[in-house]
C-alpha cells in the first residue's frame, strides 16, 4: 500500500529554485532515508509534506488524500519532528505527553504504553529542561507516536546525540515501524546510521532526486583492489574482462568494479590469466561510498 505519493513538486524561494520536479513514493512499513548535504532541499521537502510551507506546483498525497482534499484528515495521518524537538521545557516529560494526549483524545492506556516504550524511566516526571538531547528526542518520538501515524517524518533526529543516544533512537525507530506497520521518512548526516535504519535510500542533489535504479545498482557493486608489482602489465591482462564494469589505476593499485554475484568467477579468471598480486581487498559499496561518488566525485574527504 502506498502511504506517501509526491508528484512533480517544485519550490523556489525568491529567484532560487530549491526543488525541481520531485517524484517520490513510500510504501507501508518502509523506512526511506533522504540523503544530501546542507542546502540540498531535504528539510524543504519535509516541511512541504508537513504543510508548514507550500509548494509552487505539484501534488502530495498521504494515504490517498491531499491537504486540499481534507486538511484535518491529511494532518492526522502523519507526525513529524523537524529540525529540533518542540517541547515545553518548564513542564515535566509526563505533562508534555499528557497535554498532547488530551488534545488528540488518546487513551491514558495508550499513553502509558508509549511511555514504557520510549524507556526514559523515572525521568518522565522531571522537567524537560533537565533532559539530555537524547531524552528529548525519545520523548518527542513518543509524542509523535501517540496518534499511531501512518507516516513519521524525522529531520536529522540523531543530531547532537552521543553514541548511546544514537543506538537507542535507532532501535526505537525500527521497532516503531515494524510494530505499527508505519512508514518513515528520515534524513541524517550520519550515513552509517541511515544504512542501518533504512530499507531504502534516495539522494537529493541541487534540488533533484537521484534515480533509485542507480543507487540500487551501486549498492550491488563490489570494489576489488589489487596491490601488484607491475601495475601496467597487470592492467593489460585484466582491462577487457567482460564481467568487470570498470578498471582504474590509483596510487599504484588496481581497482576493479564488479557485481557482487560475479566475485568468485573473477577470482577464477585472475588465476587463469596468471595475475600475481601482493594483496587483495574486497570492499562493498556503502552509503558513504555512494555519497562520495555523487557529491564529491569519488574523492576522499580532505
UniProtKB/TrEMBL annotation:
<protein>
    <submittedName>
        <fullName>ABC transporter ATP-binding protein</fullName>
    </submittedName>
</protein>
<feature type="domain" description="ABC transporter">
    <location>
        <begin position="4"/>
        <end position="231"/>
    </location>
</feature>
<dbReference type="GO" id="GO:0016887">
    <property type="term" value="F:ATP hydrolysis activity"/>
</dbReference>
<keyword id="KW-0067">ATP-binding</keyword>
<dbReference type="GO" id="GO:0005524">
    <property type="term" value="F:ATP binding"/>
</dbReference>
<dbReference type="InterPro" id="IPR003593">
    <property type="entry name" value="AAA+_ATPase"/>
</dbReference>
<dbReference type="InterPro" id="IPR017871">
    <property type="entry name" value="ABC_transporter-like_CS"/>
</dbReference>
<dbReference type="Pfam" id="PF00005">
    <property type="entry name" value="ABC_tran"/>
</dbReference>
<comment type="similarity">
    <text>Belongs to the ABC transporter superfamily.</text>
</comment>
<dbReference type="InterPro" id="IPR003439">
    <property type="entry name" value="ABC_transporter-like_ATP-bd"/>
</dbReference>
<dbReference type="InterPro" id="IPR027417">
    <property type="entry name" value="P-loop_NTPase"/>
</dbReference>
<keyword id="KW-0547">Nucleotide-binding</keyword>
<keyword id="KW-0813">Transport</keyword>
Amino acid at each position: 500500500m502506498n502511504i506517501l505519493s509526491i508528484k512533480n513538486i517544485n519550490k523556489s524561494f525568491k529567484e532560487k529554485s530549491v526543488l525541481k520536479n520531485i517524484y517520490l513514493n513510500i510504501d507501508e512499513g518502509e523506512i526511506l532515508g533522504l540523503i544530501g548535504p546542507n542546502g540540498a532541499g531535504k528539510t524543504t521537502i519535509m516541511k512541504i509534506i508537513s504543510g508548514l510551507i507550500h509548494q509552487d506546483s505539484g501534488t502530495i498525497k498521504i494515504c490517498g488524500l491531499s491537504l486540499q482534499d481534507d486538511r484535518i484528515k491529511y494532518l492526522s495521518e502523519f507526525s513529524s519532528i523537524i529540525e529540533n524537538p518542540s517541547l515545553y521545557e518548564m513542564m515535566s516529560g509526563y505533562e508534555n505527553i499528557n497535554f498532547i494526549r488530551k488534545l488528540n483524545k488518546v487513551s491514558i492506556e495508550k499513553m502509558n504504553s508509549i511511555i514504557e516504550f520510549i524507556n526514559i524511566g523515572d525521568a518522565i516526571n522531571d522537567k524537560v529542561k533537565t533532559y539530555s538531547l537524547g531524552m528529548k528526542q525519545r520523548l518527542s518520538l513518543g509524542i509523535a507516536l501517540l496518534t499511531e501515524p501512518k507516516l513519521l517524518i524525522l529531520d536529522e533526529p540523531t543530531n547532537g546525540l552521543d553514541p548511546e543516544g544514537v543506538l537507542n533512537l535507532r532501535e526505537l525507530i525500527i521497532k516503531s515501524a515494524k510494530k505499527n506497520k508505519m512508514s518513515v521518512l528520515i534524513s541524517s548526516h550520519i550515513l552509517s546510521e541511515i544504512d542501518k535504519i533504512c530499507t531504502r535510500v534516495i539522494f537529493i542533489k541541487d534540488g533533484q532526486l537521484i534515480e533509485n535504479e542507480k543507487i540500487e545498482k551501486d549498492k550491488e557493486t563490489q570494489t576489488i583492489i589489487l596491490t601488484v608489482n607491475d601495475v601496467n602489465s597487470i592492467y593489460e591482462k585484466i582491462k577487457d574482462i567482460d564481467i568487470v564494469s570498470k578498471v582504474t589505476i590509483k596510487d599504484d593499485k588496481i581497482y576493479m568494479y564488479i557485481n557482487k554475484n560475479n566475485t568468485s568467477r573473477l577470482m577464477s579468471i585472475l588465476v587463469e590469466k596468471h595475475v600475481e598480486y601482493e594483496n587483495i581487498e574486497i570492499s562493498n559499496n556503502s552509503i558513504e561510498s555512494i555519497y562520495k561518488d555523487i557529491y564529491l566525485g569519488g574523492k576522499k574527504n580532505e
